[in-house]
């Protein structure tokens, strides 16, 4: 009844007068008549023209017979694709190469939707699909491939997936079909046995001319019987790509390419094996009488020399690996005996256990039969196999099924630590934590709205905050104490010290010696000797400028000039009639310039010549100014000074108005 309804809908759609419509109707009838032969279940096929086919509920691949060779004459194949309820089907046309004919009468591809009565096609070489991806609105699609007499043509290759994977690609897509650096596509199931070459290996990457989905199977990113999402990068190519055997595929050795394909696989680290155990081991005695022990510890892949080997003639030999704790195991790497021996395992089973008592065989994605892994083809090369889905266990046991000459094996496991499980907590964002056993937590802590609190980390966080706060407070107190000491010391120096630099040491009540200054190496200009002054040392060639001399018997007087701030001197306490607030400036303006009579005093004087030191009184209240002048002739006075008739002693003249503080002036040399 259902078949008649479909036929009626197709007749109404194509019309009775159209040649192509009549041909399509005939093909539909032939395909529908195959229903009782095996197309009642989802993902079924029937006919003598069917090639490689792998149909799953979520994705699959189908091809004509002998693809990519010439398809045979007078054949037909019908596939029925069924997606889960609530989804629709997407079809990717990988290749449609059928001998051209009018209205595709000789060879054709026709797709029909039995739910809505929609037909797509017929297609052949001169009538190819307009887009590489066909989006349907149905969860059931019938694919009919029909041929008559022809001379050429590769046939067809199609892939499908559900509407949940709009980035579906064909099994024939290569890395050179993309230009972006990062790629994310969905590979259908069944691409492993499709014709196409790959160059490289999982560790190096693959040449960009490699078939993308087939390389993903070789790298262990997806399982061929499931398909899946693939993420990879197109990186800079390398000089040489080495071949490898992995997951039932042999890659080729390839030359330099501009780009290479690198697949992203997060859990892919070599796991540490704590201990090895075996059903038996071979104690060999060679022809020279030397002993060689093929013990279980020799099964580590990193060991040099011979491997583990079971006792010859032993049945049901096995090798056990202890990981110490449960791990997420995603793959296994096997190798033969060594270079000197030609022993290796060609196929094996894998089982796992968590307690070493109950063992569970690995069955892969099918879950029906124990999976047989393809082993080595020689004693030197390494072979990789992926566990999809991964194994979560502590103990892994390898049971050889077939071998060459003797059971000998080296093994390494690939994977990572267990993924952390998020423990849900009410009203608090969950914190990542590994949960091995169900645990319960008291509900005594009330979370604060808007603040994520972790009870296990709250104590350590609070302690860290207290330590940091205490350290900051201690540093602040030390800085404040240092600042107060500096201010106190500076105030005491300003009240008790005078200014001195380069002058002979005076009494502590009159001057404060600056210890930070270097020892004085220059002396002031010579002055008139005072009573009790016994310092008659030889004067250097140059003197330090701006020096102040204070008489021991006199009171400290005001300075005429303000010392420079950068010199770092401290001013003495000045007590004089100038210290009236608001009346006078703190320092008086410089004296008017005097005639330039100063001469370098340290130059050697000719015989018969000598210098005279005169004390010239300035305006009233000013300090005496001493100049080094040439010796005056008898009867001469300095310019600008009237003769007072006062007697002069040899080498010096005295004028009234002597002040207690004398300031030394000199001219720059």
From TrEMBL:
Transmembrane regions: 462-486
Sequence ranges assigned to domain LCCL in this UniProt record: 165-261
Predominant subcellular localization, coarse grouping: membrane
SUPFAM superfamilies found in the cross-reference section: Galactose-binding domain-like, LCCL domain, Spermadhesin, CUB domain
Membrane topology: Single-pass type I membrane protein
Entry's localization field: Membrane
Keyword Electron transport tagged: no
Any one GO MF annotation of this record: signaling receptor activity
Signal peptide boundaries: 1-17
Residue ranges constituting the F5/8 type C domain according to the UniProt record: 308-416
GO cellular component, one term: plasma membrane
Cysteines paired by S-S bonds: 50-77
Domain of life, source organism: Eukaryota
Matching PROSITE patterns: CUB, FA58C_1, FA58C_3, LCCL
Keyword terms: Disulfide bond, Membrane, Phosphoprotein, Signal, Transmembrane, Transmembrane helix
Every CUB domain range: 50-163
Protein name in UniProt: Discoidin, CUB and LCCL domain-containing protein 1-like
Organism: Cyanistes caeruleus
């Amino acid at each position: 009844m259902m078949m008649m309804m479909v036929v009626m809908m197709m007749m109404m759609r194509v019309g009775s007068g159209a040649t192509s419509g009549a041909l399509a109707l005939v093909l539909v009838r032939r395909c529908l008549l195959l229903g009782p032969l095996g197309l009642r279940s989802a993902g079924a096929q029937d006919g003598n023209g069917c090639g490689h086919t792998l149909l799953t509920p979520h994705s699959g691949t189908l091809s004509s017979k002998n693809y990519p060779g010439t398809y045979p004459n007078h054949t037909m194949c019908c596939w029925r694709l069924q997606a889960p309820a609530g989804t629709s089907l997407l079809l990717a046309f990988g290749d449609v190469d059928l001998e051209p004919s009018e209205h595709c009468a000789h060879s054709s591809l026709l797709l029909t939707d039995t739910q809505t009565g929609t037909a797509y096609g017929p297609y052949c070489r001169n009538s190819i699909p307009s887009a590489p991806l066909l989006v349907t609105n149905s969860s059931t699609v019938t694919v009919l491939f029909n041929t008559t007499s022809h001379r050429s043509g590769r046939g067809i290759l199609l892939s499908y997936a559900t509407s949940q994977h709009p980035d579906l690609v064909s099994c024939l897509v290569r890395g050179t079909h993309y230009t972006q650096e990062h790629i994310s596509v969905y590979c259908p199931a069944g691409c492993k046995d499709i014709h196409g070459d790959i160059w490289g290996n999982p560790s190096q990457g693959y040449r960009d001319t490699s078939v993308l989905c087939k390389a993903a199977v070789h790298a262990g990113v997806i399982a061929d019987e499931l398909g899946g999402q693939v993420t990879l990068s197109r990186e800079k190519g390398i000089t040489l790509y080495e071949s490898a055997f992995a997951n039932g595929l042999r890659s080729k050795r390839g030359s330099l390419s501009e780009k290479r394909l690198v697949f992203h696989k997060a859990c892919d680290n070599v796991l540490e094996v704590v201990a090895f155990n075996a059903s038996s081991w071979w104690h060999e005695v060679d022809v020279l009488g030397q002993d060689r022990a093929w013990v279980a510890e020799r099964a580590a892949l990193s060991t040099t020399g011979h491997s583990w080997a079971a006792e010859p003639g032993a049945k049901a030999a096995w090798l056990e690996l202890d990981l110490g704790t449960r791990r997420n195991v995603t793959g296994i790497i096997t190798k033969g005996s060594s270079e000197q021996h030609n022993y290796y395992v060609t196929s094996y089973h894998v089982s796992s256990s968590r307690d070493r008592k109950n063992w569970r065989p690995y069955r892969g994605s099918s879950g029906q039969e124990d999976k047989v892994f393809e082993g080595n083809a020689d004693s030197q090369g390494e072979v990789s196999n992926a566990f999809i889905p991964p194994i979560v266990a502590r103990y892994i046991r390898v049971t050889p099924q077939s071998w060459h000459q003797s059971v000998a094996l080296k093994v390494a496991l690939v994977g990572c630590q267990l993924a952390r499980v998020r423990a849900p907590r009410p009203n608090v964002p969950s914190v990542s934590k590994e949960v091995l056993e169900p645990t319960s937590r008291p509900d005594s802590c009330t979370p604060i709205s808007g603040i994520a609190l972790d009870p296990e980390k709250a104590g350590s966080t609070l302690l860290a905050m207290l330590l940091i706060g205490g350290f900051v407070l201690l540093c602040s107190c030390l800085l404040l104490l240092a600042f107060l000491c500096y201010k106190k010391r500076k105030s005491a120096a300003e009240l008790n010290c005078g200014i001195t630099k380069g002058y002979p040491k005076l009494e502590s009540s009159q001057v404060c010696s600056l210890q930070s200054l270097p020892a004085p190496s220059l002396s002031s200009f010579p002055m008139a000797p005072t009573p009790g002054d016994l310092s008659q040392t030889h004067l250097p060639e140059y003197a330090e400028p701006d020096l102040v001399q204070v008489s021991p018997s006199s009171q400290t007087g005001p300075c005429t000039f303000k010392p420079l701030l950068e010199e770092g001197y401290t001013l003495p306490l000045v007590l004089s009639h100038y210290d009236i607030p608001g009346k006078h400036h703190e320092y008086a303006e410089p004296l008017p310039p005097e005639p330039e009579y100063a001469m370098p005093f340290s130059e050697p004087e000719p015989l018969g010549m000598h210098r005279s030191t005169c004390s010239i009184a300035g305006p009233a209240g000013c300090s005496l100014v001493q100049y080094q002048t040439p010796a005056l002739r008898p009867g001469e006075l300095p310019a600008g000074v009237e003769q007072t008739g006062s007697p002069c002693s040899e080498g010096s003249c005295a004028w009234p108005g002597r002040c207690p503080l004398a300031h030394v002036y000199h001219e720059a040399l």
